[in-house]
Amino acid sequence: MNMYNNFDSYESDLTAMVGHNENILWRGKPDKKCFILESIFNPLLPFALVWCIVDLSVLGFSFVSGGPMGLFVLAFMSLHMMPVWLYIGGVAMTSRKYKNMEYLITDKGIYISSGMFSKQFEMKPFTDLSHINIHRGIFDQYLGVGDVVTVCGHESYSSSSSHSHSRHGMTICDIRDYKEVFQMVKDLQTDIYSDTMYPNDMRPESNHGYRTKYRGFDR
User: Fold this and answer.
1) pLDDT tens digits for 20-36?
2) What is the per-residue pLDDT across 37-58, written as a single tens digit (0 to 9) for each?
3) 3-state secondary structure labels for all residues of the chain
């Protein structure tokens, strides 16, 4: 299955990381609408709203009561509202985060680029992965997209890792063809891990274990 389409003439920094002996099977970005909605309605939103309401109430009371402390209270509360500014700044930088977000799957592993001001490039070989899951949040289901979550053997699965990847696993977020990508990663992980544990050339005809078709991926 080769899902690497319409990208042959474009090479990004992430593409440049791919080795000469690797074949790109799939490449994509998150669904932009879902990415923006999840950035706005993130877990920090209720906390920022409550914080903002409380601080604005204190500011309003201070100015209504008058007195020489008004400007001092204004300066202090502006600093005190830092969690609100951080939330607003994070939402404002969504377009930049989206621009730097890219996913790439080869016959060796998964590559992900991310970041806001600086770019981060990471690669996880299939031999390190033990579990592959599909996660679909509220906006994912509404917009017909999903997340493919990969987990290493010593990590537990968490569905809360949106737009990012855990310390050891990786998450491909908000993609339209999440079912196909899930099946691709699952097949690659199973074939390559099985071939590493018991190479095809060493399998006797009477072996009743895995009989994978992995031969270096000439797809």
Assistant:
1) 888 999 999 999 999 99
2) 988 888 888 888 888 888 777 7
3) CCCCCCCCCCCCHHHHCCCCCCCEEEEECCCHHHHHHHHHCCCHHHHHHHHHHHHHHHHHHHHHHCCCCHHHHHHHHHHHCHHHHHHHHHHHCHHHHHHHCEEEEECCEEEEEECCCCCEEEEEEHHHEEEEEEECCHHHHHHCCEEEEEEECCCCCCCCCCCCCCCCCEEEEEECCHHHHHHHHHHHHHHHHHHHHCCHHHCCCCCCCCCCCCCCCCC
